[in-house]
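Reply to thread "Modeling small-molecule complexes from scratch"

Following up on the discussion above, here's a worked example others can learn from. I took a protein sequence and the SMILES for zinc ion and predicted the complex. Inputs first:
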Amino acid sequence: MRTVNAIAAPSATEPLAPTTIERRDVGPKDVLIEIRYAGICHSDIHTVRGEWGPVPYPLVVGHEIVGVVAEVGAEVTRHAVGDRVGVGCMVNSCRECDNCRAGEEQYCLNGNTGTYAATDRDGTVTQGGYSTHVVVDEDFVLRVPEAIPYEGAAPLLCAGITTYSPLAHWGAGPGKKVAVVGLGGLGHMAVKIAHAMGAEVTVLSQTLSKKDDGLRLGADHYYATGDPATFEVLENRFDLIVNTVSAVVDLDAYLSLLTLDGTMVNVGAPPEALPVHVFTLFGNRRSLAGSSIGGIRETQEMLDFCAEHGLAADVEVIGADAVNEAYERVLRSDVRYRFVIDVPTLA
Ligand SMILES: [Zn+2]
Ligand SMILES: [Zn+2]
């Protein structure tokens, strides 16, 4: 075991505070990563505040991790000391079920092992990336291409793959009209990736306050959903709608914007159940779908795609002492577009 510096949530109601945690010894198939940057995902905040269920406190969150390989186990073949690597939302899965065998470990039928707050296959509780080091099985460690700046790479491990996977699955590309609902951490990556895939991209945001940003990120059009005329103008327009909003939305209103065989896929997670009229789905043979992160193979494909197209997240780098303040700003949507912790400030 090795003791490393971290920032942890002591409880649902206290601020995060510096502490130390234990990392397991580097096993034969393990990689020890010296973490450089860790992104702050909205899920981190929901989790530490107990909003998504019981939490094993004290808890270190963070599942947008990039760093350098510091040590490898004797049987590791995919990574070497000094490599630029990343870890996303999961660090293990059963590897035997149909979904794991299909390379869709995020949908492991026995439950994938989350990067934090999960019970790992060895019985220990996983602790995330707000920490100077992490030990991860090599199969769940990604290569981060040189072309992507470290800090801009971190959010790709959650926000990037969460949007890339549905865009790839539903065929965003030339000739396709894609709408992105919400321009936050997920939404800004969806716009960049959909544009790079060659789709015609429209942002649907509550107001026009981020319109200049949206167009700069690659959107062709930008509409305010607060304006009822938007839903008339855009009726029957889109092949794919990627909804990144975690709040309640009027599904029927958005579904009515889909053209023949169009799909609305949800990647934001409102806690409430949302009603939908089946008649809205009858029209244009529409589909309502969901998508959760991506498998390891696809996550690597996403990183390579981003390198090839010069994509990275727009980030604001902060020191470890500014995380609590950053949480408050995330809750106010006051970040463009992702906070990333400069992890060596923890040392
Ligand atoms: Zn996340
Ligand atoms: Zn499985």
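What I'd highlight from this example: The CA atoms of residues 189 and 229 lie 27 Å apart. The first strand starts at residue 2 and ends at 8. Questions welcome below.
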